[in-house]
Amino acid sequence: MEGLQDLLSGPDNIYAIYMAGTPDYVGTGRTNLGAPGIEEIREQTEYAHDKGVKMEIVLNSSCMGGQHLTPQGFNKIHWYFDRLNDIGIDSITVAEPYFVEMLSKDYNMEVVVSVLSFVDSPQKAEFYEELGADTIVVDPVVNRDFAKLEAIKESVTCGLKLLVNEGCLYQCPFRYAHFNFFSHANGPGPKLNVLDDYYYYKCLSLRINDPQQLIKSPWIRPEDTKRYEHITDTFKIGGRTHFTNWILNNVHAYTNRDYDGNLMDLLDCPRDIRDLFYIPNKELKGTLDQWKQCNKICSDCGYCKRLTERIVRVYSVDDMQSTLQPLKSTGGST
């Protein structure tokens, strides 16, 4: 509750906040800092409503292992949805198509299609709207493809949201497997006894060895959100596992549409190399014009590679002091 109070004492143009639900019923496709019970969700929802802010519960497991299609699983999940509805939850974010249809038919809560449904085309958007979606969070993979975004916008009447600060690899080959892993690790049992998160550490190593992947990630700079207003006026800031001060820093940057600092400070992922690279956000001005006309065939272009070599710097520690060095002088591969 303290974190929520700090968050809602900041900017007054926060439309909604979101939190994970109880993983005993439906998991999520991300890691969680905690597992709030029904009474805790009720308390935080009432506080948010008192501040004029909507509450959204994220239950975006990308794989339920078929449990939701069994009589026992269906009854348990339906009971949980009933409790969330009684609490006064405004919206529920789900990735499972079955849940989209169930929620739209049986409840008055707004149904939000998760980014983990990978809606990256007009056809997918139409499919989910027909199932009952009120809002769709578009797959960030098309954040820089304005023709695709505009086609999605024109194909549906439901609302759209754009996730602005996800730092995942562009066209990540691990994306589906990784979110399925999270869904099982952070969902109803049996709990997994895994050695480590292969996908995450592989993802880190790819960026360290090839820093241009940081530039290719489909984030949206705070200054560029105005270029997307014909698509949506609702921008989602990812990072529910971060501390409140980090979230507030992002909220201020995106509400002010201005950030003078390291772009890495705003990205939800990958946090473990945030203190390794420095990407001066102000030096990225004008890049969206290039990406809007890009055909996404990197071998024929090289723009992101050249940009990385020109502006990305690396933190180097010498005599207990941290300094910034050009990427090439550190032997970084691009």
TrEMBL record:
One protein family per Pfam: Peptidase_U32
Keywords on record: Hydrolase, Protease
Keyword Metal-binding carried by entry: no
InterPro entries in the cross-refs: Peptidase_U32 (IPR001539), RNA/ubiquinone_mod_enzymes (IPR051454)
Keyword Hydrolase on entry: yes
Superkingdom of source: Archaea
GO molecular function: peptidase activity
Single GO biological process annotation from the record: proteolysis
Protein name, UniProt field: Protease
